[in-house]
Design a protein that fits this description.
The protein is α/β, with parallel strands linked by helices. The chain has 2 domains: 2-23 and 255-408, no CATH class; 30-252, LarA, N-terminal domain (Rossmann fold, 3-Layer(aba) Sandwich), CATH 3.40.50.11440. Helices cover 32% and strands 20% of the residues. It has 15 helices and 16 strands. It has helices at 2-8, 33-43, 68-81, 100-109, 114-117, 143-147, 171-178, 181-189, 196-210, 238-252, 280-283, 324-329, 332-342, 357-366, 397-401; strands at residues 16-21, 55-60, 85-90, 121-122, 127-132, 138-142, 150-156, 213-221, 227-233, 263-269, 299-305, 321-323, 352-354, 378-381, 389-393, 406-408. The protein has an 8-stranded mixed β-sheet with strand order 13-12-11-10-14-15-1-16. The protein has a 6-stranded mixed β-sheet with strand order 4-3-2-7-8-9, with helices on both faces. Strands 5-6 form a two-stranded antiparallel ribbon. A hairpin with a 5-residue loop joins strand 8 and strand 9 (227-233). The mean pLDDT is 95.
């Protein structure tokens, strides 16, 4: 790597500033979540549909959702109080390496365990046939959920990373992809993300009509990864209410206020941060042509994977450079099933692998075209869910000072690389 190091050292890493981005801060305090969950379930009169002794499957997916263990526990305790027998079913399509054990491990990482909840957690890749779509597709859902007396769907509603439509990441997708497990998700993905705005609600409506889904709880988060709101929906309301909640979620979503940079540095990516490892709605680089972004950059450098992603490097293919540290952590068996199922293979390509953080950042700068190499425009973020505190290079500081949603909170400094050339 000596030649590469020599080439990298021709690039200049400038001084940086700590910057705070300002977003809407309204949220539900953790201590108030239980009351809110109970209020929402009472609002849709779920106890008129769930009778004592009935088993209830509560969905729980693979995303890193704020307070997910508390929300899930509170939903279950409500059902216990009305005499039902709740259990959590792993609802995450092909994630976790498309294995029951892998999906259970993801839930455990979020604290969603039988010990914490006080009721069972089930994980299986078996599916049951629900019915046919108007176009003749077989609709499948998780066997444990199908065999329960009732299903209650809980999930976060937010912008998807690969397509646009009235139903993106949310309840209808949870019903279609999450509950569909690997087999069901594969049927949906067969036609690609270009038709997902049509296929996801089409499949979900078959499940809504042919299973006992007694309601749903939409989770809305603010830009600080806090629970902004919890909104319940009856079975027949999900199709019409969810688009309104998606619009709300989009208005709260974190973003980078500066519209154009030369290099974006992302410290860590992972499935707990985004289905695409790093949210393309933040980075501005998508794995499909079906979404657009106003954030522009020439290069993206990814420095590490989160521990919670268990080697799943989905989204790394959207980076231009990465590190040997990332490469040593990648788990093909954990990653490839999801990519194969989604049919978006470019997400799991390996970018240029460099020995350390410093070399990766320098090569990202050096390979940019038509920029001021002595004073490059760079933004560094911890991950795409942590956008309150970011770092910007000197070339961007005036833009920060002229933006009322941003403020400089430090003096200028050089990035502190250790003896191995890494930042952490």
């Amino acid at each position: 790597m000596s030649v590469i190091k020599d080439l990298a050292n021709e690039a200049n890493i400038p001084k940086f500033y700590q910057v705070e981005q300002i977003f809407k801060t309204d949220h539900i305090e953790v201590k108030d979540i239980k009351n809110k969950v109970y209020k929402e379930l009472e609002k849709i009169d779920v106890n008129s549909l769930v009778k004592p002794g009935m088993t209830v499957a509560i969905t729980c997916g693979s995303r890193g959702i704020a307070n997910i263990k508390e929300i899930t526990k509170d939903i279950g305790e409500y059902f216990i109080e009305i005499g039902a027998k709740p259990f959590v079913t792993a609802t995450m399509g092909s994630h976790g390496g498309a294995t029951a054990e892998g999906q259970r491990k993801i839930l455990e990482d979020y604290g969603v365990t039988e010990e914490y909840l006080g009721f069972p957690v089930k994980s299986s890749m078996e599916t049951s046939f629900v019915g046919k779509t108007p176009e003749g597709h077989s609709v499948l859902i998780d066997k444990n959920a199908y065999e329960a007396d009732a299903i209650f769907v809980a999930g976060r509603i937010k912008a998807h990373t690969a397509f646009e439509g009235p139903h993106e990441s949310g309840i209808m997708k949870m019903i279609t992809i999450g509950l569909g497990k690997q087999q069901g998700a594969e049927v949906v993905h067969e036609s690609g993300f270009g038709t997902a705005h049509h296929t996801i609600p089409m499949f979900a409506k078959v499940t809504l009509q042919n299973t006992n889904i007694v309601g749903a709880l939409g989770i809305i988060e603010n830009a600080y990864d806090q629970t902004y709101d919890l909104v319940s929906m009856k079975n027949e309301e999900i199709d019409t209410v969810e688009p309104e909640l998606l619009a709300l979620a989009n208005s709260l979503m974190g973003k980078i206020y500066i519209p154009e940079v030369d290099v974006l540095i992302v410290d860590k990516i992972g499935k707990n941060m985004s289905g695409d490892g790093m949210d393309p709605n933040v980075t501005g680089r998508f794995g499909t042509p079906y979404r657009k972004s106003h954030f522009k950059k020439q290069r993206i450098a990814v420095l590490d994977l989160t521990d919670e992603t268990h080697g799943n490097f989905n989204g790394l293919g959207l980076a231009d450079v990465t590190t040997k540290r990332v490469y040593d952590k990648v788990d093909l068996d954990e990653t490839y099933p999801n990519a194969i199922t989604s049919t978006v293979l470019q997400m799991v390509k390996i970018p240029m692998v460099l020995p350390d953080d410093e070399t990766a950042i320098k090569i990202a700068i050096r390979s940019c075209n038509n920029i001021d190499k002595d004073n490059p425009r760079i933004i560094r973020i911890r991950d795409t869910m942590s956008l309150k505190n970011i770092e910007v290079s000197e070339a961007l500081v005036n833009e920060v000072k002229n933006n009322t949603n941003m403020k400089v909170v430090s003096e200028a400094y050089y990035l502190n690389f250790n003896e191995e050339g890494n930042l952490f």
